[in-house]
């Protein structure tokens, strides 16, 4: 198929496998993923839920992304095939459907030139699969290769599917608890509805009472990142960053886009390099944004640990 990449040539496969194993261990400490319903194998994803439903999930299972639109006739041919195969493969991959009309930022970040376009995310790494409708036999071969590489090189064995499980039960099991449960639930609901301002305020309300609350700190950092990138023109931002390597604000904006699109190491590396070659207020601005992005990813992530060491070397 046009656009198919050699998945066996994925870079840094061992590092990605280690990241996936750590993410699964973290999930186990938090209560585990549990079994999912067959209905949960196909999810509609938005800019607000991309980090949770795609990037985080990709540490457990390959996530196949279907970029589509209601007016796209080839999409109406391809999408039902992918949905049926997601059920048939029984948890070996998760299908994430993204409406390009409602989520143009994600379309731009992935560099989608036409639809339907199909990508995969494995252990946080983006892999282009194919563009346009294709024969089912070819789609199956691509999915088989994806599943094989995900298991052998990244250690991803997929999700456990229980036909008797309630749809959405896993998400419900992660409903916030504790004294700030109502505020945290309101923040999550606002995020899912695309109300970033409401989510930010809900998280700030928690932090006003408990400044060290880890879930609220991370949620606020994520919501603020989404709010910053929502109004960006990705092509313009990346061009300015390329044309103006000494412009700290241009590098900060590009790092935000990198992270929002799942390119974690690129975002961290860009800001570490900016810290290295700047001083004074410019250096502080780059350093502080890097610390904010650390919060988005989470302090337990090995990429954050590595970037913290690199930042320390750049500073001292």
UniProtKB/TrEMBL annotation:
The keyword Ubl conjugation does not apply. Keywords: Redox-active center. PROSITE patterns: THIOREDOXIN_2. It comes from the Bacteria. InterPro entries: Thioredoxin-like_sf, Thioredoxin_domain, TPR-like_helical_dom_sf. Gene3D superfamilies: Glutaredoxin, Tetratricopeptide repeat domain. Transmembrane segments: none annotated. This is Tetratricopeptide repeat protein. The lineage of its organism: Bacteria, Bacillati, Actinomycetota, Actinomycetes, Kitasatosporales.
């Amino acid at each position: 198929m046009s656009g198919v990449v050699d998945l066996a040539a994925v870079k840094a496969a061992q590092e990605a496998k280690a990241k996936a194993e750590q993410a699964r261990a973290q999930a186990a400490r938090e209560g585990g993923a549990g079994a999912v319903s067959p209905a949960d194998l196909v999810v509609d994803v938005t800019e607000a839920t991309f980090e949770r439903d795609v990037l985080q999930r990709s540490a457990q299972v390959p996530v196949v992304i279907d970029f589509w639109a209601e007016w796209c006739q080839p999409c109406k041919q391809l999408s039902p095939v992918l949905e049926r195969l997601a059920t048939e493969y029984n948890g070996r991959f998760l299908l994430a459907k993204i409406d390009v009309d409602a989520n143009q930022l994600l379309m731009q970040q992935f560099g989608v030139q036409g639809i339907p376009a199909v990508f995969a995310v494995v252990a946080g790494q983006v892999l282009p699969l194919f563009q346009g409708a294709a024969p089912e036999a070819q789609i199956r071969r691509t999915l088989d290769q994806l599943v094989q590489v995900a298991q052998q090189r990244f250690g991803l064995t997929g999700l456990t599917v229980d036909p008797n499980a309630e749809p959405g039960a896993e998400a419900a099991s992660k409903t916030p608890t504790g004294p700030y449960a109502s505020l945290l639930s309101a923040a999550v609901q606002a995020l899912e509805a695309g109300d970033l301002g409401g989510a930010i305020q809900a998280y700030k309300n928690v932090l006003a009472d408990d400044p060290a609350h880890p879930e609220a700190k991370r949620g606020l950092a994520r919501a603020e990142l989404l709010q910053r990138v929502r109004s960006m023109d990705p092509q313009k931002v990346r061009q300015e960053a390329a044309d103006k390597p000494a412009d700290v604000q241009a590098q900060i904006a590009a790092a935000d886009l990198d992270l929002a699109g799942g390119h974690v190491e690129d975002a961290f590396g860009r800001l570490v390099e900016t810290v290295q070659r700047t001083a004074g207020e410019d250096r502080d601005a780059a350093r502080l944004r890097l610390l904010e992005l650390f919060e988005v990813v989470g302090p337990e992530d090995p990429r954050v640990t590595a970037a913290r060491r690199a930042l320390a070397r750049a500073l001292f």
